[in-house]
What does this fold into?
Amino acid sequence: MPGVGVQSDKRKQARHYRAIFISDTHLGTRAARVDLLLDFLKSVSCDKLILVGDIIDGWQLKRNWYWDTTHNDVIRRVLKMAKHGTEVIYIPGNHDEALRGFEGHNMAGVELMPEMIYEAINGKRYWVLHGDQFDGVVKYAKWLAHVGDHAYVTLLKLNTAVNWVRRKLGYSYWSLSKYLKHKVKNAVEYIGRFEEAVAGEARRRGVDGVICGHIHQAERRFFDDIEYMNDGDWVESCTALVEHEDGRFEILHWADEVAAREEKKNAGKRSKSRGKRAEGPRTPTPVAAE
It folds into this structure.
């Protein structure tokens, strides 16, 4: 069959990982970088795909419905991965909390779980959860979390406008909200407290480390003997946490990878264009008179 060879080539080109962890894609919002997410999912394959919460943003969909064809393409891609042998696990977060209570069920090959223990190839055990359980605002003042969500959405809209201008000027993606988060002292302190609290609970549970999302801050660090890993998000940093087949963990920054890919492609075009100019106009080959 003519299409089989092409599909086989695509599979060979895809990077393969033992496990991929992604969270906070916030499908259903205009701020979600579904273009980069779909590109990522088409560029990789894995034994396990673990969705660590806030995949579908139920909070925003209730307020303002938004769902385009690329959102559908992302869902189809995940289901296709499940159909072709990838173990897909979905751990709901606070924005997709409507799925909590359905844990233990299987939806078209996607298994719903409240949390899980992931065993790496080296035998280390990691507690995997979304992480909103350690967010005091979400846990004890949900109304304030919704107010904060409104403010965050406004910031992301501004972020979208800034990046539209940057694309027109030929610049790569840049996260305004991530930049401001690093600059605001309270935000930095909040992130630090969150990481310490999650790592502390992981130590109490007797595991080697923890993998989570929620705060949109991709990170790998140690708190004494506990390895803390956060897979980031797909509205600001566009990151994923992966375990290589040799057991190494790595945070992939996909926006940077796409920008590097585009730069390489454009450099090739510029080089080809310079080569043509250097050749100059071709002189016709003289033909001997008969």
Summary: The longest strand covers residues 15-22. Confidence is low (pLDDT under 50) at residues 1-12, 137-149, 283-290. The radius of gyration is 23 Å.
